[in-house]
Amino acid sequence: MPTPWWRNAVVYQVLPRSFADSDGDGLGDLPGLTARLDHLVDLGVDALWLTPCYRSPWRDAGYDITDHRAIDPELGTLADFDRMVSAAHDRRLRVLLDVVPNHTSDQHEWFQRALAAGPGSAERERYVFRAGRAPGRPPSNWESRFGGPAWSQVPDGQWYLHLFAPEQPDLNWRDPRVRAEFAEILRFWGRRGVDGFRIDVAAALVKDLREPLRDVVGGEGSTGLDDFAANPDHPFLDRPEVHDVYRGWNRVFHEFDPPLIGVAETWVRGEQRARYLRPGELQQAFEFEFLRVRWRAADYRRVVSESTAAARSVGRAATWVLANHDSVRQVSVLGLPRDVDTGVWLATGGTEPATDLALGTRRARALIMLALALPGSAYLYQGEELGLPEVADLPAAVLRDPKRNGGKDRGREGCRVPLPWTRGGASFGFSSGSPWLPQPAGWGDYSVEAQRGDPGSVLELYRSALRLRRGLGGDEAFCWDTDRNTGDVLAFWRGDVLVVVNTGPAAVPLPPGPVLLASCPLEGGALPGDAAVWLRPSGT
Question: How far apart are CA 261 and CA 259, in angstroms?
Fold first, then answer.
């Protein structure tokens, strides 16, 4: 049986509002994306993942949806979407679309009908409405991912659940109408040519709604989002019943030829994550622990070993994530001391402490060589191939992210600043107008135009690594190098290619043989600190 296209694919995440603008309104759009698809081809990726472009009030970057079958007018039309998919396929790029099944916008017609219908109605059963424990007290201690209670009260006294913003009410996946609706949503976009779906908040769909609702262990103020040790039978995360949802989705995927794929955004680990990948369920699940490592070889070694073993236990390969629209950009993170909390750093506007961008860039170059050498698939986030830093000092007036904890935090917009395409000009080639988020004055130095053809640039390193990656063999061609894989050094084999990553300060010796790619110049046959190399040792 041939290897499916997605098993070892590299997928490029596109945030459409920040990718490219075609009409000068300062907002990226689908025609702008279509016009820039050749950048993805030149880069060497296999597919693009498009974050939500549905009709939305845009309270949470489009993850609050009012119509799952319509394109938001700010981004284009269904005809624009069809042209983009066709143009991508003409370039042999697959297209994955974000699907958001955990919640809708509070402006969705279902939720508006639920509010109007009142307690006990069939309309309210599509969501999670409950009476409070006592006057003024919510039904449970569950807390929102964005801070504060996960419950909001409506005028008739009931409370509705929102694991995210109040404008994002959670759907009730125990209601068969919800399941039927999303099956039709998947079919709608499958018929329009998409190749699969990235599934937002995949582990949270099914909640334990038996009365009385159970509190999360940890008391008031505890989200319990990752604390499965204290909550082994978690009331709203990774419920066993959620797998029945994905078995149903897999049947929908196989209505198409070739079958569509599903990629789970889950923050669960190891064996829990692998359960989403069992035969008859989903095809990929993001490995987020890799993203959390702060440049320590021992931590990378543990995560790679555990994740590859877990994926192989169900016949799958791991899915590596280095960055996304919710995370601080790697160049900035890796330039900070390891013990600095990025949230605290962002709250200072990125000034305390100052990030060492030269060091961060050096490490980020080595890290992408590590990630792209690992067995399995890899997901890249737009702008990482340019070495963009976090824009931590955006003016408060432009910050709209609901994940700001009542304004105490900066939110996630610093990694969403529109891309620079040219050295100069209006918004550095992103738009002919003013971009929806301001770009720093030096943004043009990171542009595609400035880096293309420069052998020392981050962009050209990505292009070289992606080209060479195709010769590393399948995901089964992986084993640790027992002699070198110790201390600050990670070392492993991909077939006859030796991959060495040095997370320490001191140079380490390398075996003789031709170098395929290095993140920085070598030092007389040695790999400097904060660097990576792919080589083919003599005699192998």
Answer: 7
Q: What is the pTM of this model?
A: 0.96
Q: Which of 200, 238, 390, 475 is catalytic?
A: 200
Q: What confidence tier does 409 reach under pLDDT thresholds 50, 70, 90?
A: confident
What pLDDT sits at residue 479? Answer: 94
More confident residue, 465 or 146: 465
Q: How far is CA 328 from CA 8, 34, 219, 293, 356, in A?
A: 25, 27, 29, 13, 14
User: Rounded to an integer, what distance in angstroms lies between the CA atom of residue 450 and that of residue 421?
Assistant: 8
Range in 151-165, 186-200, 346-360 with the lowest mean pLDDT: 346-360
494: β partners: 497
Helix (H, G, I), strand (E, B) or coil at 11: strand
Residue 473 is predicted with a pLDDT of 82
Contact 488, 503 (CB under 8 A): yes
Q: 312 with 375: CB under 8 angstroms?
A: no
3-class SS at 32?
helix
Mean pLDDT to the nearest integer, 35-61? 98
Distance CA 65, CA 109 (A): 10
Kindly report each contact of residues 536-539 with a partner whose C-beta sits within 8 Å and lies 24 or more positions away, as own/partner. Answer: 536/496, 536/497, 536/498, 537/498, 537/511, 537/512, 537/513, 538/511, 538/512, 538/513, 539/513
CB atoms closer than 10 angstroms to residue 286: 23
Residue carrying structure tokens 């994740």: 307
Q: Is the peptide bond before 212 cis (omega within 30 degrees of 0)?
A: yes
Q: Which two tokens stand for residue 429?
A: 């080639």
* DSSP code for 384: G
- Mean pLDDT value of segment 355-370: 98
State the pLDDT confidence band at 228, using cuts at 50, 70 and 90.
Answer: confident
Element containing residue 308 per DSSP (H, E): helix 297-312
* C-alpha distances in Å from residue 523, one per residue of 89, 195, 454, 488, 511: 43, 45, 21, 17, 13
DSSP per-residue codes, 99-147: E--SB--TTSHHHHHHHHH-TT-TTGGGB-EE--SBTTB-SS--B-TTS
Query: Is 255 designated active site?
Result: yes
Q: What is the pLDDT of residue 131?
A: 97
Burial class (CB in 10 A: 0-12, 13-18, 19+), 347: middle
Please report, for residues 121, 172, 441, the alpha-carbon distance to residue 177 in angstroms, rounded to integers and kept in the order given.
14, 9, 51
**What sign results for the dihedral spanned by CA atoms 33, 36, 41, 45?**
negative
The residue annotated as part of the active site, out of 38, 42, 109, 255, is 255
156 is catalytic: no
Distance CA 60, CA 523 (A): 47
Distance of alpha carbon 197 from alpha carbon 518, whole angstroms: 34
